[in-house]
Design brief:
It is built from four helices and four strands, in the order αβαβαββα. With 110 residues, it is an alpha+beta fold. The protein has one domain: Glutaredoxin (3-Layer(aba) Sandwich). Helix 2 links the parallel strand 1 and strand 2. The longest helix is centred in the middle third of the chain and has 14 residues. The protein starts with a helix and ends with a helix.
Length: 110
C-alpha cells in the first residue's frame, strides 16, 4: 500500500491554518440526587434520571448517599428519599417516576 504523504501534509497545514471557531457557552444545570444504596425506589429514580439526562450535555448529575453524608442531606433540606434538587427546588416522594423527573427538569431549565 502506497501512502501519498502530500495529502497528509495538505490536510495538516490546512487544518492548522484555520482560525478556531468560538465554542458556544453552555449553561450547565446541576441536578443532585439524594439516595441510599439500600433503597430500591432510589435505584429506580436513579435509573430514570440517567436515562433522561444521558444525551444532554447541559445537565450534570451529582449523587449524594444520605448514609455517607447525612448532615449535608439534612442541611440541604432533604427529609425523604429519593429526592432531586435543582438550585433550591426539591422534588421528593415515595415513588418518583420518569414523568415526574422529566417535568421537574423541564420546569427548571434556564
Amino acid at each position: 500500500m502506497v501512502v501519498d504523504h502530500r495529502i497528509f501534509f495538505y490536510y495538516r497545514v490546512k487544518l492548522s491554518s484555520c482560525p478556531e471557531l468560538p465554542t458556544p457557552v453552555r449553561n450547565t444545570m446541576l441536578i443532585t440526587l439524594y439516595k441510599s444504596m439500600f433503597c430500591p425506589r432510589c435505584h429506580l429514580a436513579r435509573k430514570y434520571l440517567h436515562e433522561l439526562t444521558a444525551h444532554d450535555l447541559e445537565i450534570k448529575v451529582e449523587e449524594i448517599d444520605i448514609l455517607v453524608a447525612p448532615r449535608q442531606s439534612w442541611s440541604d433540606g432533604v427529609r425523604m428519599i429519593p429526592a432531586l434538587k435543582i438550585d433550591n427546588h426539591i422534588l421528593s416522594a415515595l415513588y418518583i417516576n420518569r414523568i415526574n423527573i422529566a417535568d421537574f427538569i423541564a420546569e427548571h431549565r434556564h
